[in-house]
Amino acid sequence: MFNCPYQNCKRTFSRHAALREHTKSHKGQAYWEILNSVSEDSCIEKVECSREFVITDNVDEREYNVDNDHNVDDDNNAIMEIVNEDVVNENIADESVVDRSVIDENIMDRVQGLEFVSSMDIKHLLYLKTKILKYEDEEYFLYHRPIFEAIKELLSNIDIINHCQWNCSPDYITNENGHRECVYGEQWSGMLWENAQKSIGTGLKKVLSIILYSDATTLDHFGKSSEHPVYLSLGNIPNWRRNKRDAKVLLGILPKLKPLHNRNENKSEFASAKRMLYQYCFDIMTKPIYECDGLDIKTDNQIIWAFPFLSEFIGDLPEDASLTLTYSSSRSSHPCYICTVTIDELNNINLSKSQIELRTPNNMQVVINNNLCHEYSIHPMRNIFWKFPAAVPDRMHHCDLGLFNYQVNFARNYIQLYCVKDGIDEFDKRLAKIPRFPELKIFKSGLGNIARFTAAEFRNMMKQLVFVIDGLIVAKRKSNLSLFQAKQHDSKLVDLFVSWNRMYIFSRKDTFTDSELDNFQKMIIDWANKFINLFTPIADTEMKYPKLHNWQHHIIDAIRNYGSINGFTTETYESLHKFYIKAPYRMSNRRDATSQIINLVRHDSILNYLQKITSPPSIKKHRQIRTLGGIEGSFTLDTFNDFVDEYRTTHFLALEAEKAFEVLIDSLNQYFDLIENITNKDIEATIIKWYTSAFIREVDTIRAKSNYYNAPAFSDIAINMN
């Protein structure tokens, strides 16, 4: 029998389906009866597995609310109306503990469940809808959450806060010459954190490092719909932990001006409104940072007095241009958003630091006051990010999708210049012939659609192209090119890709010492020299690329300021689009998609929160991973020939498998020679098992099958196992 769980209802039912139909008559009000009854009994009690976590303003304990009459910039002519949605401030989830056993899963059907979740007012999971701009009778809204509430959600994760670092902690080593060197790894080992700590003082004052990532993403395959999310993380979290998805949260979704308003007669006005909208949105989201005089972060065993500052803003080049209000065109007179170098000096790898003038709030304000904006490629607007000089070069957009993309395209043109017509066809054939291997992208169709390749595909190409281009020019050279000349051109191209791989692999180190940074700078200069000298004759841009300049002259300083590149790359942030934006969009009905996306993200956050505060601590189970898999048979040394003959008759053997059988006996003899006190009787009694695959480091798979998905998969490799 099934009893109705609602108050003042004594009905019972023999079938579960009848109970479900009955509960629909109670609608949502019954849920509040259940919740209120729980709150009366347990409003003070805390769940043992949860951690008390409170963020309050250290000075006047005020809440962050946007003033209805707030005007970000009175000097501009935009219409600014900022409003907050009406919300219920009962803070049920903050003040009470929801007992999962009370909310009977038998009555939580989909519709009522969504109504219940939507009605919950958990303060740090609320999103605000703020009217930002009215342009040509069209209103634009910013969906966002108070930035300190987003931080609260992050730090309420016990695993995250347990790994947080609050002190400036530079690391030093003594090199082989006896000299002391600084080690740059985590953000708190960099110079920026040290300067921030000095600005607030030492002692009990701690640094709360805020990282923002902003990037537009398409929502469908045709690219007709897009959203512009902003994510938040903390530099206090170690790099390895921050690279996980739960160490980042969605802070807001920026509005976009509709393209239909972008007409020929108002292009300048439209572009100005677009920049204004971008700056206003970030001003609203970051305003609490520079208005705050300190936060009390309370955990169950300590109180941390933290001072927030925006340490990093991560994005691609268009995002950085919007952030710093510099011209986005790479052909402008001063195209670098970090310094004021001219376009003619972008390909100059010999620039010294004294020749590079950084863009700072002071000198850019002088430029604006003197009406020199166009000469310095900057828009004449107030830049709210002058308070936070935090834009950093991003490896994924600069290297994977930028410089390496250029290098591959130039290399194909270079091959076409010195080879006959089928030189590019031979390039694609060699690339397609590379056999299957775990975590290796196979380009069966060549590079015909390279414009749509992702960063992961370009990283896969780095592993392969050295072997693809080696000897290609020699094999397919033109008739008017001598063998000596072909070998020279071939060697230069291969050497360029080897230099790139050496530099790129070095950039992925977790830590850098001062001497290693000097070596890294030499690697960059070495590669850049080869890149410029080899491709300048066939390029119409004279190799004047902002990404090339930034990588040469600004990446080393960024490491010294912010720690290793792995801590401020967008590689791990790009995957957030799928979870926070694209998946919720596909669940919506495409009408007012932004609000539906926000609601779905909030629902997911609430469910995770309820699960966290009502579930006992989980015991982590370690999955047993097999080292060897797919046994084919077993034999002794006496029956070896019989096993091989039978295996040959029942299986098609690849050439590598034939060779493996030939060397197996010699390998076993060498193995037995290493074992002390082994007798001939022990050797004769040894049973040898033949497996089809072996798992190495839980990632790589070594296969010994001659037919795997209708293709040979025999790995020509020897493994020493202790």
TrEMBL record:
Keywords, ordered alphabetically: Metal-binding, Zinc, Zinc-finger
GO molecular function, one term: zinc ion binding
Domain C2H2-type: 2-31
Lineage: Eukaryota, Fungi, Fungi incertae sedis, Mucoromycota, Glomeromycotina
UniProt-listed InterPro entries: Plavaka, Znf_C2H2_type
Stretches that traverse the bilayer: none
Top-rank taxon, per record: Eukaryota
Name assigned to this protein: C2H2-type domain-containing protein
Tagged with keyword Amino-acid biosynthesis: no
